From TrEMBL:
It comes from Polytolypa hystricis (strain UAMH7299). One of its GO terms (cellular component) is membrane. Residues 19-479 form the Major facilitator superfamily (MFS) profile domain. The lineage of its organism: Eukaryota, Fungi, Dikarya, Ascomycota, Pezizomycotina. Keywords: Membrane, Transmembrane, Transmembrane helix, Transport. SUPFAM superfamilies: MFS general substrate transporter. Belongs to the major facilitator superfamily. Vesicular transporter family. CDD domains: MFS_MdtG_SLC18_like (cd17325). InterPro entries: MFS (IPR011701), MFS_dom (IPR020846), MFS_trans_sf (IPR036259), MFS_Vesicular_Transporter (IPR050930), Tet-R_TetA/multi-R_MdtG-like (IPR001958). This is Major facilitator superfamily (MFS) profile domain-containing protein. Pfam families: MFS_1 (PF07690). GO terms for molecular function: transmembrane transporter activity. It is found in: Membrane. The chain crosses the membrane at residues 12-30, 37-55, 75-92, 104-124, 130-148, 160-182, 188-208, 279-296, 316-336, 348-368, 380-407, 428-449, 455-478. Residues 252-263 have a biased composition (Polar residues).
Length: 479
């Protein structure tokens, strides 16, 4: 079977790392990842400026309902992902080849996007958003797993940083492209952009040949790249590549009889992972980070209007300043993680967020008259937002990467405990659920604290939370 695949037309370039990584990155750009606050991509953001036109002009809804309907259509994604991600991940971990799952997810995403674009009825519009959420969650899990497997153990952090750059490109560019095309060219020309990119990614997925995953093999059917690495490496970090082919069945059968769980029993995976304090530290990173960023979206519009009298344009530019550093500093942060590990960059990132979060609450507080709107308040606020955007690249994705490192460590000591193809997808799903929990809890917590104790003390509380997570990361991040 492997020989026939290798004799396929253009096998060398169709199975190249470049094409695999490029296909995954395009899917990340057009798909909808597990967190619609931070890593919402082009399709999620594209529809935001178009939704009022769709609801009021195409569906003839009362303009007074636009705000509530828009909130529901955008927030449904997080709820669907929270439910679907663990189930999808369990199925993906039982699949040897990811070609079919990714094709199905892209086809489902295309179907959902067409439903959203045509907007025949309000409920079909909701159905389209649900299909986009299901497909986007699956595509995210598949693509991130593809990136980490094809990156090589010394480049996983850099690949995650690169993927975040593509994600943030979609986040920032989606609303801009959608609004501009709708105003300049009209409704259907605007939709040609995401539909065209989706079709391009489907074509790339059909062309691409992904080397099959070999959970246990003597090397005869593995790809040349896998065999070369498997023959010379047998370290605890090698599972970040495709699952170890050097583990012999004869050597692992006695141990597997006691420790191996069937691949379909996801409950065994989650029980094993959630009792590991290292995994809890990873989830704390994902939840707290997403909660803080989600809190910005909830509190910034009102706060900036109160202290600076800023409107929607200035608020949007402030959020842009927060998000854009990821595009440029994400790969650099990933390179640093590959060089020195996760523990120290993550800890330093959280520690640096402490003074930045505190300082963000200073402008407009009467205790600090030198930071009011008429003096240095605006410069301080914008500088803090830019600093948070840069520093957050050190902590963004740390929970995902550390969970994968824990999975590989457990599998190296107890082979096949998570099934024939490992537990990478379920590990990503755990952090996806954590991210969505943060996205749901963040606005509630930030909104309550802002009203109860004020914006300044809300930021003091968040700064204290950053310090706690820094201590947790330093003590329990071991990779």
């Amino acid at each position: 079977m492997a020989a026939s695949v290798q004799h396929a037309y253009g096998y060398a370039w169709r199975s190249s790392k470049f094409l695999i990584i490029a296909t995954a990155c395009i899917a990340l750009l057009t798909g909808i990842p597990p967190s619609p606050v931070v890593v919402e991509t082009l399709l999620y953001g594209f529809v935001v400026p178009i939704l009022p036109y769709m609801l009021e002009v195409r569906l003839h809804r009362d303009p007074g309902e636009t705000q509530s309907l828009t909130t529901g259509l955008l927030s449904i994604h997080g709820f669907v992902t929270l439910i679907s991600a663990p189930v999808t991940a369990a199925l993906l971990d039982k699949t040897a080849n990811r070609k079919i799952p990714l094709l199905l997810s892209l086809a489902m995403c295309l179907t959902g996007t067409l439903l959203v674009a045509f907007t025949p009825t309000f409920w079909l519009l909701y159905l389209g958003r649900i299909l986009q959420a299901l497909a986007g969650s699956a595509a995210w899990l598949v693509c991130v797993a593809m990136l980490t497997e094809n990156a090589g153990e010394r480049s996983v952090g850099r690949m995650m940083g690169l993927s975040m750059s593509f994600v943030m490109t979609g986040t920032i560019g989606g609303p801009i492209v959608g609004g501009a095309l709708l105003e300049w060219l009209g409704y259907w020309p605007a939709w040609c952009v995401p539909l065209g990119i989706l079709l391009l990614d489907i074509i790339a997925r059909l062309i691409m040949i992904e080397p099959p995953r070999q959970p246990r093999s003597d090397g005869s059917s593995a790809t040349a790249r896998d065999v070369a690495k498997a023959d010379i490496e047998n370290t605890e970090t090698s599972p970040l590549l495709p699952p170890l082919p050097q583990v012999e069945t004869a050597e692992t059968e006695p141990q597997a009889s006691d420790t191996t769980r069937p691949a379909g029993q996801s409950d065994g995976f989650y029980f094993e992972m959630l009792r590991d304090v290292r995994v809890l530290a990873s989830l704390a990173n994902s939840i707290v980070y997403s909660a803080i960023i989600a809190g910005f979206n909830t509190t910034l519009p009102v706060h900036l209007r109160q202290i600076f009298n800023w409107g929607s344009l200035n608020v949007g530019m402030t959020i842009f300043i927060l998000q854009v550093p990821t595009i440029f500093f994400g790969p650099l942060s990933g390179w640093l993680r590959d060089r020195v590990g996760l523990r120290y960059p993550t800890t330093v990132g959280w520690v640096l967020l402490v003074p930045l979060m505190w300082c963000l609450g200073v402008p407009g507080n009467p205790t600090f008259p030198w930071a009011d709107a008429e003096s240095h308040g605006k410069a301080i606020f914008i500088s803090c937002m830019a600093g948070i955007g840069v520093v957050s690249t050190l902590v963004q994705g740390s929970g995902f990467l550390h969970t994968i490192a824990v999975v590989q460590d457990i599998e190296s000591k107890r082979p096949n405990i998570f099934g024939a193809h490992g537990g990478r997808s379920r590990a990503f799903a755990m952090n996806s659920v954590g991210f969505n929990l943060g996205q749901m809890l963040g606005p509630l917590l930030a909104g309550y604290l802002s009203e109860a104790i004020g914006y300044y003390y809300m930021n003091v509380t968040l700064a204290a939370g950053c310090l706690v997570v820094a201590l947790v990361s330093f003590t329990h991040f071991v990779f």
